[in-house]
Amino acid sequence: MDYLALYVTLKLAFVTTVFLMVIAAPIAYLLAYYHFPGKSLLEALVYLPMALPPTVIGFYLIIVMSPKGFVGQVWGSLTGGSLLFTFLGITIASIIYSIPFAVQPMKAAFSKIDRRLLENAHILGLSKRAAFLRVIIPNSVAGIAAAAVLVFLHSIGAFGVLLMVGGSIPGETKVASIAIYEAVETMNYSAAGMLALSFIPISYAFLLLINKLNRDSLS
Amino acid sequence: MTISASIKRRLKYYDLDLSFTCATNKMMVMIGPSGGGKTTIIRMLAGLEKPDEGQVIFGDEVWFDSERRINITPQKRRLGYVFQDYNLFPHLNLLDNAAFAAVEKKEVDDLFELLKISHLKKRRPHMVSGGERQRCAICQALARHPRLLLLDEPFSALDVVTRRGLREELKSLKGRLSCPIIYVTHDIHEALFLADEILPVVDGKIDRGWMQRTITREPGEAVQAKGAREPRLSLVY
Fold it and tell me: pTM of the full predicted structure?
């Protein structure tokens, strides 16, 4: 079995989840608590990766991350390297691909907190930032955990976008879903079958976890 | 210190337009029918809402002045505000809730003693009764050493017996505080029991005759009848 591909998949999912939690929290906060012109446009933009074919996202990421693209140029001048076909490249792709799955549950969890609790926090002297850290985050733990699990699951399932941005370099960008595809292409059904089978308990366990988190947040 | 306010605000069904003053150690009870603007006034004092026009002055500090475009944030007003519910943070136990913004953490123990909830320190808000939650909310507000205490129907969600007990404790607590207290209720009995001064607010205006009309139940307009029903019931107790 291609353990290396499985390892890259889990590493990618883990790194994506950690970064996305930090990136998505302020976006979800903004969407949950503020009204500003163009808010619905911003919200639709954040959710756009969910509505686009992964190959379309991959295509545009290639454009911006290639050595001639804007991000690729900046990265190249800073480090001399390329973003395409690297682990960092697929991490960025995976983050963009999964951003809706992080923002949506977090926003829902933040919106559920009673406004009066926040008003009371302000009256008790907390700045907006302090209220976010001391009141909103601790009262949204279930929603944040649900977001993390969703992002993790969505990341281990990514295929098209990663294939376009990262190709299939063993140990670097070759994730399990790509390894399965390649094994099938070369008629190596037993290798594909083993990898495929390993996904089922992982995904199933995480789904059970989401259910439990949702139940806890309702009670 | 004295709080004085003169505020105007255009609301959906009527205009809010009134002024009042409340001095240190005094409890002013704002009374009137539901929907008369009492909570809106309190929220303006707290800085949670903005009047269209007017001033809110605390001692020599200007908290709000529409002409000078001054509006001090709730964080800087350093006041205590007890709502009907929702003061307590669900993720913290009662002790941590009360100590949330305490000036001195040690004092919280004394306050718990005073309000008779010392045995509940480690409980979360959903594990105690409504009356105990409100006791804790009072501790939370007092631990901050508020310069002004706002109580917006703090006991309305409680049963009559608990409410009467807490009302009496609040009255005895009053002597220990050195700040103006503004108490909102629609319960005439509560108002008469607690108040140093009563401010009847009807449809956003001060209506000094409202209490009299309500108690004697002169044939009046629909608005008065609406306010009269519940307070009259409470006179029984």
Answer: 0.82
